[in-house]
Design a protein that fits this description.
Blueprint: E1 5-8, H1 10-13, H2 19-38, E2 45-46, E3 53-60, E4 63-72, E5 75-82, H3 87-101
Parallel strand pairs: 1-5
Antiparallel strand pairs: 2-3, 3-4, 4-5
Length: 102
């Protein structure tokens, strides 16, 4: 099995004002997310309207969030995090965010 490298955007790194939650999120991205990707977990779903962009629901502390990430050539880049849990709304929101940030 090839090693999967991880990275994240400044948006992800500064999402939580609480350092404990930020640490939990970054630990998830660096340890659990590569395992889920390698095992092709059913928790992972593609983002509608985009190639190589995927999402999954994560729990940080007592709350749930949706995390969007790009996966290509054994590289994961976490791009977006939100409390919007409905998939249809999340897909639109993440695509709008990516268009505005590029």
């Amino acid at each position: 099995m090839a090693t999967i490298a991880t990275s994240y955007t400044p948006f992800i790194a500064t999402f939580f004002p609480n350092p404990t939650e930020e640490t939990k999120l970054l630990a998830f991205i660096q340890t659990k997310l590569p395992i889920y990707v390698a095992q092709r977990s059913p928790k992972i779903k593609p983002v509608a309207g985009s190639q190589h962009l995927y999402e999954l629901k994560v729990r940080i502390g007592a709350d749930f969030y949706r995390l969007a990430y790009r996966y290509e050539a054994n590289q994961i880049q976490a791009l977006y995090l939100t409390k919007t849990l409905r998939k249809v709304h999340f897909d639109r929101e993440v695509l709008r965010f990516l268009r505005s940030s590029s």
